[in-house]
Amino acid sequence: GPVSEESIGRPAAWQELIGRHLRSGQGGEQSRAVRAMEAFAERAFRRPLRKDERESLLSLFSRRRRDGRDTEGAVRDAFVAVLVSPSFLYRSIESGRAAQGGVYALDGYE
Fold first, then answer.
1. How buried is residue 37: exposed, middle or buried, by Cβ count under 10 Å (0-12/13-18/19+)?
2. What percentage of the chain reaches a pLDDT higher than 70?
């Protein structure tokens, strides 16, 4: 028959991405979830999150929690949003700082 999720050991990747933040005991449930989402998104996007990206992840997490998802499920939904984001799929130049001749000055994240 089906095996409950709790009876299966978590892989090391889960522990690195989610577990160490959610199980840290520091701060409330939402602040631990936010740390997990931010750490994952910054790694996926290869740069610090912008304020609007951070707010979007928090909004998605909050909506999923209101819809009855548990904390881990809501964080997973945020991870899916990160993985389908153009910021993950494509490396882009976001600064918009065009130099003469159409040459862009890149920063350390571009």
1. buried
2. 67
